[in-house]
């Protein structure tokens, strides 16, 4: 990221968003706001760049991370360009979710209690899922790991300021660099991911074996394993053996693999997640596009699939969403009425049959491509289109229009839409991002739901002629999420609305309102 600007005041671009918020604290790198009625807290960060390429890269990297549940949510972002004294610099401003507390604060408040294997599995699951969503991995320490709602552990997607080796020798405890960070042994090849895996493994070892002491002393921490810029192999082996005595073998194997001295022998985050899945301890998943992918599995090379870690499909929650088998929303012109009420047989079996039926019908529609389009498809090409408002498109082009698969970028190079196009319009399956959403009330009463309007952050699903139309999922700026049917940019049909704090509403929606 760029240079965090200290103690900035409220940006004019955020005035409308923050009009109900007051400044309650000023840290060295951000300003903390709080809504006095809902008690919601937001952090205001601003970063300064003198290099335009670095600025655009930072903005672009943030776009797909805004809704990952193990990264602190970015509610809103703005970009500015300043011309001063014959020079230009660029500014990125963020409104970010404020965590409950840091991991260090959590341990201090927790007191003298054993850390269970279930808690360790959960901590590993959260961090691994966050790291898999980050292109650049982060070192994990006690003060850059954060507790969010529902005890989910989170990282800041834009915070790469912590590197243990940078603070080495300054009498700061609990740093835990990897062996290769010291650059003492040229045979140890440095890898950022492998180095961060080791540091996280040391933190887990510290928590598991040091938390039971009256205080986190040097003797019980992992600091005693470091001697003269190296790690004592014998002490490390003894400490890992102690872990095996107190925790399940599978969990101990994960820690032992994370703490391999040779980076080539050390596991990756994907390796860890695979072990968690085998042990049925992989609980953190992003299920928002399961419905979309099930009927697109045959198109395994689709660009829309993107990073597979962003949307794992192993979940059962969506199988309980009842959908109308009588109607596929794609290309539909109406929503079924009350005569399509579900029966009251086995709900899971019924819903699964409805889901399979809906997907089957969608596959039939997907296979019916317009003949004229197929005949002319040989004339398509891959390229770039530039628009007068600064936006640009990269992807498949036919008749000098966006046709096929591609990405439409905003003028600041953030992704506006990634998916399928027809004659210059969003049409088919895609992901759309809202670069400037309004903030929705965190404690929203579902009966007072204002509608989609400009409160949404991300929509992933089916489109028809530029409109959200079909089956999809939408995430709102307060982290609420709706998965189900859409018609002409409105929530219509069967769907599930899940609020940030866990309340779920399953039923039939009409014009953005829950009917029954």
Automatic annotation (TrEMBL):
One Pfam family matching this protein: MORN
Organism domain of life: Eukaryota
Listed transmembrane segments: none
InterPro entries, per the entry: Kinase-like_dom_sf, MORN
Signal peptide: none
Key words, A-Z: Repeat
Protein's name in the database: Protein kinase domain-containing protein
Native species: Paramecium tetraurelia
């Amino acid at each position: 990221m760029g240079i965090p600007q200290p103690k900035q005041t409220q940006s004019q671009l955020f005035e409308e968003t923050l009009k109900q918020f007051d400044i309650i604290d000023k840290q060295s790198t951000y300003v903390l706001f709080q809504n006095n009625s809902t008690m919601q807290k937001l952090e205001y960060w601003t970063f300064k760049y003198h290099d335009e390429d670095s600025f655009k890269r930072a903005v672009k990297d943030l776009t797909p991370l805004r809704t990952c549940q193990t990264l602190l949510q970015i509610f809103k972002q703005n970009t500015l360009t300043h011309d001063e004294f014959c020079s230009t610099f660029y500014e990125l401003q963020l409104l970010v979710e404020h965590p409950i507390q840091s991991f260090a604060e959590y341990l201090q408040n927790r007191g003298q209690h054993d850390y269970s294997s279930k808690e360790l599995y959960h901590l590993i699951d959260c961090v691994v899922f966050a790291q898999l969503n980050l292109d650049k991995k982060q070192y994990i320490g006690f003060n850059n790991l954060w507790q969010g709602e529902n005890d989910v552990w989170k990282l800041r997607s834009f915070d790469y300021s912590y590197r243990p080796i940078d603070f080495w020798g300054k009498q700061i405890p609990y740093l835990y660099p990897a062996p290769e960070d010291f650059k003492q042994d040229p045979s140890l090849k440095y890898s950022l991911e492998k180095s961060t895996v080791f540091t996280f493994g040391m933190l887990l070892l510290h928590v598991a074996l040091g938390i039971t002491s009256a205080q986190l002393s040097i003797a019980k921490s992992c600091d005693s394993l470091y001697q003269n810029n190296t790690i004592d192999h014998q002490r490390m082996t003894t400490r890992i053996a102690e872990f095996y005595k107190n925790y399940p073998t599978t969990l101990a194997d994960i820690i032992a693999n994370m703490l391999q001295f040779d980076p080539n022998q050390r596991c990756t985050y994907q390796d860890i997640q695979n072990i968690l899945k085998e042990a049925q301890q992989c609980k953190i998943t992003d299920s928002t596009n399961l419905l979309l992918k099930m009927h697109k599995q045959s198109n395994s090379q689709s660009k829309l699939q993107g990073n597979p870690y962003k949307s794992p499909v192993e979940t059962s929650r969506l199988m309980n969403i009842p959908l109308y088998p009588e109607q596929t929303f794609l290309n539909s012109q109406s929503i079924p009425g009350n005569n399509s009420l579900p029966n009251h047989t086995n709900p899971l079996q019924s819903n699964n049959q409805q889901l399979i039926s809906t997907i089957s019908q969608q596959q039939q529609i997907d296979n019916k491509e317009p003949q004229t389009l197929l005949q002319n498809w040989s004339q398509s090409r891959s390229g770039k289109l530039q628009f007068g408002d600064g936006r640009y498109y990269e992807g498949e082009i036919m008749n000098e229009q966006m046709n096929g698969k591609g990405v439409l970028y905003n003028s600041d190079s953030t992704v506006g839409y990634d998916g399928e196009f027809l004659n210059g319009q969003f049409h088919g399956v895609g992901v759309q991002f809202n670069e400037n959403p309004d903030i929705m009330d965190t404690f929203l009463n579902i009966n007072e739901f204002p509608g989609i309007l400009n409160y949404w952050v991300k929509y992933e699903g089916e489109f028809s002629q530029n409109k959200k139309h079909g089956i999809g999922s939408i995430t709102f700026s307060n982290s609420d999420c709706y998965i189900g049917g859409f018609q002409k940019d409105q929530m219509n049909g069967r769907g599930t609305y899940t609020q940030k704090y866990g309340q779920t509403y399953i039923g039939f929606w009409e014009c953005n309102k829950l009917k029954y």
